[in-house]
Amino acid sequence: MSASAALADGPARPDPAWAADDAAARIRRWTEGYAPRSGLADELVGPDGRFHGAWPRFLDRLGRLDDREIGARFLSAERHIRDAGISYRVYGDKQEHPWPLGSLPLVIGAAEWAELSAGIVQRAGLMERIVADIYGPGRLVAEGLLPAGVVAGSPEYLRPAQGMSPPGGRWLPIYAADIGRGPDGRWQVLADRTQAPSGLGYALENRMVLARAFPDLFADLHVVRLPGFFQAFRSGLAAACDRSDPRICLLTSGPYSSTYVEQAALARYLGFLLVEGDDLVVSDGLVHVRTVAGLKRADALWRRIDADYLDPLELRTDSRLGVPGILEVMRRGGVVMGNMPGAGVLESAALSPYLPRIAEALTGESLRLSGPRTWWCGDPQGLAHTLAHLDALTLRPAATAVRGPERDAILAPVAFGAARETALAALNERAFDWVAQEPVPLSTMPTWQDGRLVARPFVMRVFAAATPEGWRVLPSAFCRVAEREDADPSEMRAGIRAADVWILSDTPVDAPTLVLSTPPRIRRVAGHLPSRAADNLFWLGRYLERAEAVIRLVQAHLGGFGEAITADPCAADDAPTAKRIRALLMEWHSVEAADLPTAILAQEALSGRAHYGSALNHALEARRIAASLRERLPAEAWRSLADLRDTLVFSEVFTPTEAQLRGRAERALGHLSALTGLAHENMNHGAGWRFVDMGRRVERAINTCSFAATFCGEDATAEDLGVMLALVDSQIAYGARYLAGVSRDAVCDMGVLDPYNPRSAAFQVAAIVAHLDALPAIAADGLPEPHRRQALTLAGTFQTGQAAEIDGPALERLANELERLADGIAGRYFPSGAEALRPEKLTGLA
């Protein structure tokens, strides 16, 4: 068919005729050879072979862009994903993979979406009533509408939740369903997701990336916006709490969760506190967050860990992810939980055969959205049907006890050979563990491949949130698309890409207002900082400063500080100053040996992965820590960390020259300066900023003392003192203050004791004291806490010290005192294990 015929049903455009012709020609070229598989529904091409749905509008608008412009926008989207650090992990894999966002969105008309949304709302409400009955009166089982074995035989049925009334009244604050089209073109539910549905954050990230890449298409096509849904979801959780200004937390299993990136994105977007199990403690019948200001009440938890890990006292005793005693808190109504533990029983495929009758009994309505015909093999009739039609059915686990890509593994159809015998043996041994389904061929959607559109299978996860006004459906979805036509996109893994979902309105879309009718209580900080986050921020600052110290040493050895007060300090590798630099790099475990050629030594110190003290390993540690702080750091910080890592990584087949190494060191220092500037200018100057800055300053003070002990000894040469000034970035200031050349005492005073030099050790200690004065103090007796006493004592030493008295042993003592101060800060603000419940930590509950 011609593109012009395909577009005849779309709206007319006021473009010049030549532009329309070019668009039509492009669309013909893009769609030439587009061939959906026979017997499958396709989003672009209808049964009559014509473009249908919202696609003519989309293609008409996309066709105004030439291939070069489209390619540039695709590249900008990929660059944004890389810069923002959007990534995911395959289940069980510790390696992060860049988020594989496909180029084109899935587009759906508003009228069709409204019909689909009505089915999702009905199904979400039905699921809420079913789970409430399962853990409540049990009428469905008693009246024969639901076999007891479907419930009790599911590993997701949690007996400790029996009889529990959910605080706030909701078992399912969030519901999701995996959706696909059947061969008849009707939407059908492939799976219900009620345990801890993932993908909502990735749907948000997909939208942000694609709307940024195609803002003109987004506006012209009247794509429905997302903020209203998220505001309603947040309001629903807040309304379930018994305080007017509740503290809502997102409970994660940590940075190694396969979906941690999306969890951090959701916490940042919604203003939730991202917490791990170790951040929480049960006290006085309530759940509290361990913060730097003491224990603070958590009113609601959005759970993103599986329910059986939630409470090691009543569920899995080996769990390190949950909170001991939290089930008892829920029984007493002390914390709102989304979703409630035990809700995962609704994900059992064995429930599917009984849903139509249950829907009729509970709602008086037929299901708007059905799924593939299913038989539970624990039912004699279902088993008989399965055995009689085994060659035509798929066999899969009834419940979702298996996690990861294999959790929905299809074990049939089996037509012959050993596979058939295996299936029969499984049914004979534990028939109730299996369901049989009619095969579900997935429908296809167009994706962009080498400048053309190709049909690929997809699955769409649609979300509904319980709000004070009822269920509300996200006007988008988390869509997964296979790169090959024979692949299954049910789980994110290699060969599967994500796609944004655009709901196209026929009329202009008003941006949802986020202006509150009732002003909230004014606040100037986001909330109390969890102790774990403070710990990570502190060490982020320390590792970045360690990387900078190593880079500056390398730069000094390479003579890379440009015009200096003294001559080039390292003209020869065996010069005394060069030997001191090499010895310090050895002491810091940045290099393997001190007698390496200069270029090799510099490369090892900058990028040696085998040496934990190399600049690269410090940068990688900083990046690892930053990964657990995504919701707190500016987006640009992740890009700068990636740039720092890339700058410090050398090709294994590339041997850099000294000049190239100097260039790398200069660029790395530039990235570190950018990170410092971002922290200072873009982070709110609350407790989080104070801890990252304290980490930098305590490490800088320690390193400065080490530099002074090495290069400001009694026998220091002019070259030594020149390196010292370069390491503390004070050559210009020294030259302006002292015109007669270098002096050991003057250099030592400027680098160690000068309270006006922002690079001196004294300046760092004074800044630490100021930070500690601004942080909350728990002790109520008016006396300084031990860590503050340490800081004040150190500050006094620096304030009253004299350069002539600052010798090697004194500098070593100061460095040790600074390390003890760091330990004191950690002991006060980052307690863990038995120390986490010190008596003074139980004050200030709010």
TrEMBL record:
<feature type="domain" description="Circularly permuted ATP-grasp type 2">
    <location>
        <begin position="105"/>
        <end position="482"/>
    </location>
</feature>
<dbReference type="InterPro" id="IPR051680">
    <property type="entry name" value="ATP-dep_Glu-Cys_Ligase-2"/>
</dbReference>
<dbReference type="Pfam" id="PF04168">
    <property type="entry name" value="Alpha-E"/>
</dbReference>
<dbReference type="Pfam" id="PF14403">
    <property type="entry name" value="CP_ATPgrasp_2"/>
</dbReference>
<dbReference type="InterPro" id="IPR025841">
    <property type="entry name" value="CP_ATPgrasp_2"/>
</dbReference>
<feature type="domain" description="DUF403">
    <location>
        <begin position="529"/>
        <end position="830"/>
    </location>
</feature>
<dbReference type="InterPro" id="IPR007296">
    <property type="entry name" value="DUF403"/>
</dbReference>
<protein>
    <recommendedName>
        <fullName>DUF403 domain-containing protein</fullName>
    </recommendedName>
</protein>
